[in-house]
Design a protein that fits this description.
Layout lengths: L16 H12 L2 H7 L3 E4 L8 E4 L4 H4 L7 E5 L3 E10 L2 E7 L9 H16 L4 H7 L3 E2 L7 E4 L2 E4 L7 E6 L1
Antiparallel strand pairs: 1-2, 3-4, 4-5, 5-9, 6-7, 7-8
Length: 170
Amino acid sequence: NFDGLPWPTEYSTYSTPGDVIIMAQAAMRLRVFRDIVRQRTHWIGATALHHSYFWRNTDLLLASYRGAIGIKTGFTLAAGYCLLFEADRGGQELLGVVLDASDSNPAIRFTAAARMLNWGFHDLSGQRLELRKTGVAQLQPDSVSSAANVDGRQIPLSSCHKAALPCYVA
């Protein structure tokens, strides 16, 4: 199921981090999509056809992480709390996804994403060419691991429970 929604049952379909990243890459090429997902709030005034609407973006990275562009928060029983995100620092864009960060604490996904972005922007400055070639860095899905596996090499990383970072460097 390409959209990640649980249909026909909660556990009958799934999306991999790679699937989600492919969708995000395509969507982020659209200027209107980029403009929408980076908004922290949006208001539409009342008309004769509808009342006014006010939306607040639930992506906490937009307010707390320098260069955050946003994209999508999510939750299903099967996937737990998830986050698809992008950030830009000095023209360097990183796109990532956190799946099943927690089934009870929605804030964990933002901490995991910030740690992965910090890792991508700072700790891997010498590794960026390698990431451009391989395209994907996969965190080990346990809370004990403190390293990411990039091309079979363990690279130190702050622990992020059940998180994955397909880390595409533009």
